[in-house]
Amino acid sequence: MTGICDGRVCIVTGAGRGIGREHALMLASEGAKVVVNDIGGEMDGSGRSTGPAQDVVDEIVAAGGEAAVNGDDVSSWDGAERMITQAVDTFGALHVLINNAGILRDRMLANMSEAEWDAVIQVHLKGTFAPARHAAAHWRERSKAGDEVDARIINTSSPSGIYGNVGQTNYGAAKAGIASFTIIAAKELARYGVTVNAIAPAALTRMTENLGMGQADEETKEKMSPRWIAPIVTWLASAESRSVTGRVFDVTGQALSVSEGWHRGPTATPVEDPALVGEIVTQLVADARPNANMMGFDEQ
Q1: What is the pTM of this model?
Q2: Which residues are part of the catalytic machinery?
Q3: What is the DSSP letter of 209?
Q4: Which of 20, 70, 105, 294 has the smallest set of CB atoms within 10 Å of its CB?
């Protein structure tokens, strides 16, 4: 390892298992000091235990690194603030916030309950906003005090959010919101020395094993291992990435790409008569690029 994150203090939410665990381990192996956040819940958000986070911390410490457990709920306003404070108090600074925590409550729209909608939006969308808001306020204060800030927020979107996936209107809406949040926050925080980027990962974890990935062959499982997601996140966390901001990276063990956001497509002159709109829209849609499939390519 090259030590590209030497001296960087990083928070990783949802880091007890899966993708977040790989982030924490690689960051530590590259010299970062890591606050490992995880409430230790089930996939649907129920339950609570600091055991998974402690296991990751123990693994980091055993390898000679520095890490600390945080068990706060990312969607709690006060809990998110405590997380930021803990990083600064424990390691003397904060350089990187990686918003990774998430849950699933998949359901077709016609069957989805209010609770299933609210829980997913709460964890993913507010659970990105709350830690980011408190971290941003901390870095703004440092910047205004004359300190040099070279900080990072790295959010977690999803192909379900930027491309769309059946049965995930709650999850997809939250993840699409995170992608937009990333672009806007990047513009707002640039003046303070903070970059904001996101990843849209696909990997075989306990969140995806029931979506068909668990039945894959061993070669596919290796290509879909969450360990492939950590390198881009670790690089984004480093000082080397300071010129990259406001981007969403689509990443698996098979490909790393920049996801290109909404662009204005074919355009026509508006008309006052609604009876004339149908012909215009039909031509616009015919001329437009198709929506992407879950792999990010044009649907056929």
Answers
A1: 0.93
A2: 171
A3: G
A4: 294
